Amino acid sequence: MRIMIIEDDRVLGNEIKLYCEKWGLEVVCATKFHDLCKEVEVLQPHLILLDINLPYFDGFYWCEKIRKNSTVPILFISSRDGNQDKIMAITTGGDDYIQKPFALDYLMAKIQAMLRRTYEYQDHVQMQLSNDLQYDFSQGLLRYHHEVIELTKMENRILAILLKSRGKIVSREELMMQIWSTDEFISDGSLTTSISRLKSKIRQETGVEDIIITKKGQGYLIP
């Protein structure tokens, strides 16, 4: 997923960029503040972080301009705390608003929630885990020989997150943050329990071992 940061504070913009990249996101900081629409057109981002106070024209102006040609999610980031600014952000086409200063983990939760709402439910794919074992993203179902393996809501979310990063290690911190972004809370202990039960269910129902691999001190991986 490609994130575009439209922020003239280079220190803040770079701080956000580095943090987002740790979560596996591609991040580009805008530079052409006189022609942001052209830059958006070229970059084709999946989400835009947009400040209000910008050179040349403010964020409200650019939001309206971008909206004429794109439905990309726009998250306003601003130090302004007035209700009128928040109303303007929404009425000009913004999807959400976060006030500076903010914690980077809170910003990431917002970003992931917006990406999930916008793109995750557009998936209509089935992923093969092994012979006769597949996961249906469109329905959120795990099937073996076309029979559904019953999973709890938490087990389902964990499996979907790991599959979307298939081939890559997903840290416990990242797993918990992505689950929190869906308005579900999970503790460190309950995450361990949920993953253990998920692995056990798959093993018992299919006889297949090592669908989810634990990388000690790193996280989890579906190869």
TrEMBL record:
GO terms for cellular component: cytosol; protein-DNA complex. Residues 124-223 form the OmpR/PhoB-type domain. Signal peptide: none annotated. Keywords: DNA-binding, Phosphoprotein, Transcription, Transcription regulation. GO terms for biological process: regulation of DNA-templated transcription. Residues 124-223 bind DNA. This is Response regulator transcription factor. It comes from [Eubacterium] hominis.
